[in-house]
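Dear support,

We are seeing what looks like truncated structure output for some complexes. This example has two components. We would appreciate it if you could run it in full and send us the complete token output so we can diff it against ours.
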Amino acid sequence: MASSDFELQMEEEIKKRVEEMEADDYDMGVPFSKQNWAVVVIFFVVSLILVTIGMVWH
Amino acid sequence: MSKQTATQAAEQETIFGIVPILRSERTYGFWDFFFVVSGFGIAVWCYAQGVYIASLSHFSGLVCSILGGNMLLISIICLVMIPIVRYGIDSWVYMRAIYGHVGVKLVCIVIVLVNFPWYAIGADIFSSSILSIFNTVGVDIGGGGWRRVFAFLCIILGALVAIAGPKVIAWSNKVLVPSLILVALLIVFAAVSSLSGADIVNYEPDLSAFGSAREAYGWSLEGNIAFSVSWISCIGALPRLCKRESHAYTGAALSYGTMVPLMCFLGGLLGIAMWTRFGEWSDDPAIIYAALVNPVLAIIGLILIAFSTIVVCGIGFYSFGIVLKSILPKTGFRLLVGVLFVYVGILVAWGGTASHLGPFMSIGGIIYAPVCGIIITDYFFVRKQRFSMRSVYRVDGANAYDYTGGFSVPAFIAFFIGVIVMLAIYNPITGTVHTDLFYFIGSTAWATVASGIAYYIVCKIPYFHNYVLRDRNELTK
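Here is the complete output from our reference environment:
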């Protein structure tokens, strides 16, 4: 497959997919919820506590 | 597989790697994604990282630094999973909106350059394993030159695996993860059987090179944080296949922030065992196995390590070959793999990558830190979680992200501010620490925060605000 054919194939496929996703409004069904954000905060806070404990012990 | 077929397969793979993935094409649930990412992350370089960190702190510091230091920025960086899953695109595709269509190519190439030395370390581990197998069975072939020969053999085999195409890669990956798990079990056995729990918990590293234990702990934090931000280079390919944003975030955070550090911790245990029993720090699994376990188990472990390093090299050549092909579509895939081979070959010939692990990670941090800070700031605080897919892909000539000759001025201003902050705190090339800020959370974390704040402030300037957000009239969501 020539590179130009490869690029053309890619461009056509991309356009088709972008239009399809726009029609669906980029809806993936289950958005990132408040509970998921709470998990983010927990991960960050727990790691910060661990790092701080190490600083205190040294 | 014929040359044309392998090239076609790579091009198809590249197409799949670039186009947005539709909702109907998503295949990964949480556990699928978690195991695939963990398998990629727990490679043999974790041993080198674990031993390096163990040499800098007592046991409590080892635990706090490895687990806390890795998850600290990973918990934030993994938020990039949200746009990746929502829009079904690789992070490098999204970064066209940040850096411009030409700017992203420059950043991508630099990232590949600072990331690929890890494969030189892998090649070094491979050669060490092979030499140790020979020694264990009583065959003396010397060292020196043969070490480099075997290292080159590793990267040659890795390049061949990559060129062989995605089917060979997929097969290799299926045997890689069980191999690494077996290696990890052998590690635990080697460490635990040679020491008591009290020996491990109460080990005393030699910190005489540092002013204090606190100072050494600061270095260990920098080592872990710089290690964690390096995942930004490859974090964006797999999550596109996830069905949910939350699955991708939690899977990635637990993989990069917990599984990988646990593997590093196991490496640290091996290092502690060597230090406690023999008074030397060694991150070479070949030396460690030979010293701590019986010859049969040692040979099994070394064969597994040798095999896994070839596969990891192959996956690295293939993955980064695909990344480079996505930004340089007219360049042949084999040529790109060849360029990567020459680059890592130069590092293998030099032979000094492994002994310069700390500075190498911090040099990488100079690049990774601003990339991490800017991408989070851009998506959540500047673009408010919306951007134009049409301009990202230039569909029907949409050009909101062409900026100035293909480069986004605000992004590169913020990038260089991050670099300057990093170097103002610590220069990894000279090894000079300029301020005590370094001993709190290292320089990489400060550079990440500084570049993110700088980008936000620059984008608040009215001219740059309109410059960056010229995509608003293209938005459908």
